[in-house]
Write a structure and sequence with these properties.
Layout lengths: L1 H7 L10 H13 L5 H7 L5 H14 L3 H13 L6 H10 L3 H11 L2 H7 L3 H4 L4
Helix pairs in contact: 2-4, 4-5, 6-7
Organism: Digitaria exilis
Pathway: Protein modification; protein ubiquitination
Protein name: BTB domain-containing protein
Length: 128
């Protein structure tokens, strides 16, 4: 019965991943290539490039693509600022990126970064 249902299924719906994100994952899996950041920025409206990187990190985690996770964890780190460090920290924690998490914590504890970060929306939405 289960085998019969499987053979009849023509599509799989992934509710937690955007089609554009999945397309990038497929491209990476089959060609080992990633779009340039400029391409992502142009195609990501209205999302910010950081949101695109977070979505790709989450998808890479979901599909256990460790090398892709490392790529987007590094890209997120390169764009960390006092305004987004809390959001990036939550992303790192959620998607099991210990190095990114530790770097964010080190960044966060610098007094001038902390003073800005605690006033951001990302910080106020962070789990306590």
């Amino acid at each position: 019965m289960a085998a019969e249902a499987t053979t009849r299924m023509r599509c799989v719906t992934l509710h937690s991943i955007k089609p554009a994100t999945f397309q990038i994952l497929l491209r990476f899996m089959y060609t080992d290539q990633l779009p340039r950041d400029e391409e992502l920025e142009q195609s990501s409206s209205p999302a910010t490039i950081e949101e695109v990187f977070q979505n790709l990190l989450a998808a890479a985690d979901m599909f256990q693509l460790e090398r892709l996770k490392l790529v987007y964890a590094q890209k997120l780190w390169e764009r960390v600022s006092p305004e987004n460090v809390a959001t990036v920290l939550c992303c790192a924690e959620t998607h099991r990126c210990p190095e990114l998490k530790n770097r964010c914590l080190e960044f966060f504890v610098v007094e001038k970064n902390f003073k800005v970060a605690v006033l951001t929306e990302g910080y106020s939405r962070s789990p306590g």
